[in-house]
Specification:
The protein folds into 4 domains: 2-154; 160-273, Immunoglobulin-like (Sandwich), CATH 2.60.40.1120; 283-476, no CATH class; 479-605, Immunoglobulin-like, CATH 2.60.40. It is mainly beta and 606 residues long. A hairpin with an 8-residue loop joins strand 39 and strand 40 (549-551). The radius of gyration is 30 Å and the shape is flat. The strands form 11 sheets. Strands 1, 2, 6, 9 and 10 form a 5-stranded mixed beta sheet that branches. The chain is 5% helix and 45% strand.
Length: 606
């Protein structure tokens, strides 16, 4: 039986600032079999992480089990042969011949030889994964390299990193799309180290090398005193308006002088710091619980253990300005199908009704009242009507006392009706009827579609976009299958988002749904959907029942087969066979409630 170890590598700079290790080679070695092995597996990272010497790497070659390269998100997959590996402890290293990050540097540093680092020894917790034909044991392991080791590693490679965030001082709202520039105070000529653009969460990174701050206009004086850069910063809008310009003397203060190769800093800007804006814009931040900045992977799935695609009505969450902003604002969403390239505005047809906030009032006698404020809900007392071109005007009521009321913004910026963007419907009854266990027709296979979602903000009455942010990729799947389930036993036609069909070879498939059987009952099954995760077959009844069977799909999106149950030891009685299938779908808050779909059939043991 083969072994499959999947994992993830990332390195921390400070706090919650990290990068995934990109294109490093992960190596798995058989651990030495000695009395200290158990202790080695339990040792903490700070006692195990270290650089391997070239001699040690060569000596380890005869214990090498497998190698794999990480992708841009730090993920790797190691397949261990059962001929070499028997399930024991493993030593894990990684090798890099250049900076292990996805960067474009003017002068990328390259070490004199590939460097190899030891991560530690682990005893994987292997769990069985049964596929229809090839069973295997699987385990998952992830490693977060602590800042002191990660920064030392990058320093060994000659890389320097500045990691930070830019927020609004009062609202603490992240400011996106600003350009942060870093400089080094030098004796003769200040060095421009680099720049970074703030993301949806206000975060930015600036990468540079020692060559960027040690250069001078005199080649013979190519030295830097002291050893690290003395940092000061400026912050500008994308159009070049300066919001913050620190004096160069700031680089000589204690907290900025001789900065290390990992430097973390946060900035806050006040409204008056921005000459072109006296408001905090509406900012699109999440789809349900999933942050657009960090919770989606490169394929548009949720970037967590569930790795869901999205379906149904999707809540678009963000920060909506308070009514006392000095500028009236409006916002809208646009979507682009990344497969076809077709773009469209999210208008009233694509946007469901949602509660944008509340209207609060204090009337005479100091009686407080609160009423919901809606968008796209014509029957509501307080309702914002979307413009034909998708713009939603943020309510401006701002008088808590009296009859007007004060608008208190909520978190929902919209509800995207994704089924109106894309929905695939299939008829498995006509012109021919599909039966469980048969090869699935290629023309009836659904797909996952990926979209880009853009939020645009502008001042009311203006034609120019003042601010925009983007979820670059979200995977959406909306399907519907009309299918006929075991009409010979309590079945019929059903319409569901997945195909989940069960037949019994000895009874329902033969057309004799009520016949008794005595030796074997064969569960013939089909589970089909692009986001199928796994299926299981089990039996319900009295006595010691046959063991359950589970499988992960061999082909993407389908698990089709037949599984026999030995029923000879069972007492004569009625029993039920269950098919259960689980699907990786979310409407924004973890798995959808009906992520597991079942089918079942009863039979009688003679």
């Amino acid at each position: 039986m083969k072994y499959l170890l999947k994992g993830n590598l990332r390195g921390f700079y400070c706090g919650d600032c990290f990068d995934y290790l990109n294109q490093v080679r992960v190596k798995a070695y058989a651990a030495e079999s000695n009395e200290t092995l158990t202790a080695a597996v339990a040792v903490r990272e700070k006692e195990t992480f270290h650089e391997r010497s070239a001699e040690t790497v060569k000596a380890l070659e005869n214990r090498l089990l497998a190698v794999a390269d990480t992708d841009e998100n730090g993920n790797f997959s190691l397949e261990l042969s059962e001929k070499q590996y028997k399930g024991g402890a493993i030593e894990l290293d990684f090798e890099c011949g250049s900076v292990p990050l996805r960067l474009k540097l003017k002068r990328p540093p390259v070490p004199p030889r590939p460097l190899q680092f030891h991560l530690g020894s682990i005893q994987p917790l292997w769990k069985e994964n049964f596929e229809t034909q090839t069973p295997f044991l699987a385990a998952y392991w992830e490693n977060s390299i602590a800042a002191n080791y990660w920064c030392r590693l990058l320093q060994r490679l000659g890389l320097y990193v500045i990691c930070g965030r830019v927020l609004d001082c009062e609202s603490k709202t992240p400011l996106r799309g600003l350009v942060v520039k870093a400089f080094d105070v030098d004796l003769i000529q200040d060095d421009a180290l680099g720049q970074g653009t703030t993301q949806a969460d206000g975060s930015f990174r600036i990468y540079y090398t020692k060559a960027d701050f040690s250069k001078t206009i005199f080649p013979s004086l190519n030295i830097e005193w002291p050893a690290g850069p003395d940092l000061y910063f400026s912050i500008e809008t994308a159009s070049g308006s300066v919001l913050l310009r620190e004096p160069r003397k700031r680089g000589h203060e204690k907290d900025r002088e001789n900065a290390g190769n990992c430097f973390c800093i946060d900035f806050c800007l006040k409204a008056q710091d921005n000459p072109g804006s006296s408001y905090a814009p509406a900012i699109f931040q999440k789809v349900g619980q999933y942050s657009i900045a960090s919770d989606f992977d490169a394929s548009g799935f949720s970037n967590d253990a569930e790795r869901n695609a999205f379906t149904g009505n999707l809540p678009l969450i963000g920060a909506i300005p308070a009514p006392y902003s000095s500028t009236a604002l409006e916002y809208r969403f646009r979507v682009r199908n990344l497969g076809s390239g077709v773009s469209q505005i999210v208008d009233a047809n694509l946007m469901g009704a949602f509660r944008i906030g509340t209207l609060n009032r204090i009337s005479s006698g100091f009686v407080f009242s609160s009423q919901d404020y809606w968008v796209n809900n014509a029957g509501a007392t307080h309702n914002v009507v979307m413009a034909a071109d998708g713009w939603i005007t943020v309510p401006r009521e701002n008088a808590l006392f009296g009859s007007t009321g004060q608008f208190a913004p909520g978190e929902q910026m919209g509800v995207l009706l994704s089924e109106k963007l894309v929905k695939e419907s299939f008829n498995l009854i006509a012109p021919t009827t599909y039966v469980a266990g048969q090869p699935f027709p290629a023309a009836q296979r659904a797909s996952v579609h990926t979209f880009e979602i853009v939020c645009e903000v502008r001042e009311v009455g203006s034609s120019s976009i003042a601010y925009a942010n983007v979820l670059s990729r979200i995977a959406i799947c909306n399907t519907e299958y009309l299918q006929r389930r075991h009409p010979n036993w309590a079945g019929g036609d059903v319409n569901m988002y997945p195909v989940v069909m069960l037949e019994l070879g000895e009874t329902t498939l033969s057309g004799a749904g009520c016949n008794r059987t005595s030796e074997t009952i064969t569960a013939v099954y089909s589970a089909v959907h692009p986001m199928l995760e796994r299926i299981s077959l089990s039996m319900e009844g009295n006595g010691v029942l046959p063991p359950a069977f589970s499988a992960t799909p061999l082909s993407p999106g389908e698990s089709i087969g037949a599984h026999p149950f030995d029923i000879r030891p069972l007492d004569p009685c009625a029993y039920i066979v269950w098919l259960s299938a689980t699907f990786r779908l979310s409407s924004g808050y973890g798995r959808i409630p009906n992520a597991t779909v079942t089918d079942h059939i009863a039979f009688c043991k003679a």
